[in-house]
Amino acid sequence: MDKRIDEYLHQLALRGFTPHYFERAEQALEYLFSQLPHDCAVGIGGSTTVTQLGVREALRARGNEVLFHSETPRDKWCELLPRVMNAYAYICSANAISGDGRIWEIDGTGNRLSALCYGPQRIFMLCGVNKLVDGGREEALRHMKQHACPLNARRLKLDTPCATSGECPFPEGRYSPRCICNLTLEIGRVPGGRTLHVIIIGEELGY
Q1: How far is Cα of residue 206 from the mean position of the Cα atoms in its chain?
Q2: Tell me, what CATH number does 96's domain have?
Q3: Residues 6+ apart with CB under 8 A from 134
Q4: Which of 41, 80, 133, 139 is within CB 3.0–4.6 Å of 87 for a Cys-Cys bond?
């Protein structure tokens, strides 16, 4: 493990997070699944990283109930959200982790942020090394707005300014109802009474 990774783990631990580092994705998944009973319900946040790793499919194969909004009709989301909030665990990724150990998330509807703020007792974040941002708040916001959001908007085929131009036009630019950057969450410490595992993987995953 290089000194840069070690410093991120140190900063995360200082803030009460439970950090882990694995060189390979299969090692990270082995650890993740060791923490989850086979019969428990697991909430999943929208995440390219989680999709790339095949987490939903692997959970179902071992008998877990997977609660994922993108597989649920939109008019049923109000029924799904309470079940996600009361699940055994919640799995997602971070949009950015700044050098001072803060975790950053950006969202369009807020379902993912709600689960992180006041949802399952156990949170597992799967993060490629590309989510580690040198610097603090300004650099984390720049990474999310100018890198992650445009790529995600294009992946989702959304008609947003950033999907068209490749960069966020705000504050002067045009707003779109389809924007996925409506809400931003800074997690400075672990929410009270909960455990937040930050699983950093030595690969580039997601945006």
Answers
A1: 10
A2: 3.40.50
A3: 99
A4: 41
**Is the pLDDT score of 16 beyond 90?**
yes
Asked, for residue 57, whether it belongs to a domain, the answer is yes
Q: What is the mean pLDDT of residues 135-153?
A: 91
Owner of token pair 């697991």: 42
DSSP structure string for the chain: --HHHHHHHHHHHHTT-EEEEESSHHHHHHHHHHTS-TT-EEEE---HHHHHTTHHHHHHHTT-EEEEGGGS-GGGHHHHHHHHHTSSEEEE--SEEETTS-EEEEESSSHHHHHHHHS-SEEEEEEEGGGEESSSHHHHHHHIIIIIHHHHHHHTT---HHHHHSS--TTTS---TT-S-SEEEEE-SPPTT-EEEEEEESS----
Is the CA virtual torsion 61, 114, 120, 131 positive or negative? positive
Cα 186 from Cα 62, distance rounded (Å): 33
Number of domains in the chain: 1
Does residue 207 lie within any of the structural domains?
A: no
CB-CB contact of 44 with 67 (8 Å): yes
CA separation for the pair 98, 25 (Å, rounded): 22
What is the mean pLDDT of the segment spanning 65-83?
Answer: 91
